[in-house]
């Protein structure tokens, strides 16, 4: 066997491989000898079929198997000897001319092929003990708990029918029936019967609820609105519509007294228990946000500490996934790059940088996990499946069956678990300091950080 490297350009390598016909023939004969005891042919006793006869019957198929196995074994040896970790599947180029193929399958010519690969670079990991990470911490106050309970009370406030002849006001609940048309033609989903609408709650498309102000029970109005450009249905997005709407009931909101009785309507023993539950939820929300902030800061630190050339094909693959998603989202919302104060070219450059970052961070996290023997157990994946199933009441079996029968879906669950375990490993070594912040500061939107997160 002869192996010649014909290209070594960055992370890209290409080899020309030549395997003598005699080597292939010997391997094929060995397979035929093994086959002799397994096949039954008319006119021959079991195990007594001459290899020469087997070669006439199965020669081509056995040689094809031999060539395939030889290529796989040879490539593995090439990559192992050089310490290569492949970024993508190798690209193999074999003879294509009919005459060459026939001679190769007949064992009359050497096997000559090329294999092109892209490798993962050697990654020199940083000393994580030198990392400093700031952990924002929020103390949930009694005032925040009271505010949360007040919101719960507003969501569960009672409504009572207004006096005959009363008109609807902002905050009132109006029960309506409607028929929607676009250009005089009804459309799917445009009708409703006995639908309760709280004026000012923003449940309906912009402009709909406001036009219900002043309506009375039994009154019919034609409401003129336009569907938002980013409406979920592409057929309706941006379209002007009319809704012939009849109010059947006008109700005014009442006040909810926050006490033990109110807590009991929510399934809790007392107001104190309601406060405990509200505090626990707020603490959990803050813990989740804190985790995201710390993880984001750590990924930024990893990014700064590990600058290397990432495999171009992996970057291209990651970019295409993001770009296709962005384009689809923009098309469905009717937005343009100009609306985002940018151009398509500038946006592409930005997302290529993000793709590069994500690929590098993925490789770094993988390297850390591999070197420190970090793994995800089947039990951990199983618990994640159970959590997914619990989040979809009534469809638990459907969710369970989906993951049980879909290896790719399970892999998608395993990946974030693995990433979190690697992050926790680094945080154990890093210098993590706590900083008291307000709830508002913890939850403030940061699009730049969201974009750059791996």
From TrEMBL:
Keyword terms, alphabetized: Cell cycle, Cell division, Chaperone, Cytoplasm, Isomerase, Rotamase
Molecular function terms from GO: peptidyl-prolyl cis-trans isomerase activity; protein folding chaperone; ribosome binding
GO cellular component, one term: cytoplasm
Known EC number: 5.2.1.8
UniProt-listed Pfam families: FKBP_C, Trigger_C, Trigger_N
Compartments, as annotated in UniProt: Cytoplasm
Entry-linked InterPro entries: PPIase_dom_sf, PPIase_FKBP_dom, Trig_fac, Trigger_fac_C, Trigger_fac_C_sf, Trigger_fac_ribosome-bd_bac, Trigger_fac_ribosome-bd_sf, Trigger_fact/SurA_dom_sf
Protein name: Trigger factor
């Amino acid at each position: 066997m002869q192996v010649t490297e014909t290209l070594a350009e960055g992370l890209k390598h290409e080899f020309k491989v030549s395997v003598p016909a005699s080597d292939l023939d010997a391997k094929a004969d060995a397979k035929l000898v093994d086959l002799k005891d397994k096949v039954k042919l008319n006119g021959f006793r079991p195990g007594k079929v001459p290899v020469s006869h087997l070669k006439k019957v199965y020669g081509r198929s056995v040689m094809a198997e031999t060539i395939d196995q030889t290529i796989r074994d040879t490539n593995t040896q090439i990559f192992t000897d050089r310490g290569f970790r492949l970024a993508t599947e190798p690209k193999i180029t074999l003879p294509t001319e009919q005459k060459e193929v026939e001679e190769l399958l007949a064992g009359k010519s050497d096997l000559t092929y090329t294999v092109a690969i892209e490798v993962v670079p050697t990654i020199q990991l940083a000393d994580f003990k030198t990392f400093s990470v700031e952990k924002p911490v929020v103390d949930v106050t009694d005032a925040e708990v009271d505010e949360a309970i007040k919101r719960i009370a507003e969501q569960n406030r009672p409504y009572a029918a207004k006096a005959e002849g009363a008109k609807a006001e902002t905050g009132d609940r109006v029960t309506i029936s409607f028929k929607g048309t676009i250009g005089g033609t009804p459309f799917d989903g445009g009708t409703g019967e006995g639908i309760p609408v709280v004026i000012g709650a923003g449940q309906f498309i912009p402009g709909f609820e406001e036009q219900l102000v002043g309506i009375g029970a039994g009154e019919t109005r034609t409401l003129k609105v336009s569907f938002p450009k980013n409406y979920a249905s592409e057929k309706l997005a941006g379209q002007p519509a009319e809704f012939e709407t009849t109010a059947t009931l006008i109700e005014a909101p009442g006040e909810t007294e926050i006490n033990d009785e109110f807590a009991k309507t929510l399934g809790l023993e007392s107001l104190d228990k309601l406060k405990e539950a509200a505090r626990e939820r707020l603490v959990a929300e803050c813990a989740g946000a804190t985790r995201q902030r710390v993880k984001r800061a750590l990924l930024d630190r990893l990014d700064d500490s590990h600058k290397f050339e990432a495999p171009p094909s992996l970057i291209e693959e990651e970019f295409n996934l993001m770009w296709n998603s962005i384009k689809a989202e923009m098309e469905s919302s009717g937005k343009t790059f100009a609306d985002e104060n940018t151009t398509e070219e500038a946006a592409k450059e930005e997302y290529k940088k993000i793709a590069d970052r994500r690929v590098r961070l993925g490789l770094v996290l993988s390297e850390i996990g591999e070197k420190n023997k970090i793994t995800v157990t089947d039990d951990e994946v199983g618990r994640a499946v159970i959590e997914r199933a619990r989040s979809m009441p009534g469809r638990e079996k459907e969710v369970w069956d989906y993951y049980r029968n879909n290896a790719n879906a399970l892999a998608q669950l395993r990946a974030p678990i693995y990433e979190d375990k690697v992050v926790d490993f680094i945080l154990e070594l890093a210098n993590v300091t706590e900083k008291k912040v307000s709830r508002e500061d913890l939850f403030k939107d940061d699009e730049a950080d969201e974009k750059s997160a791996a």
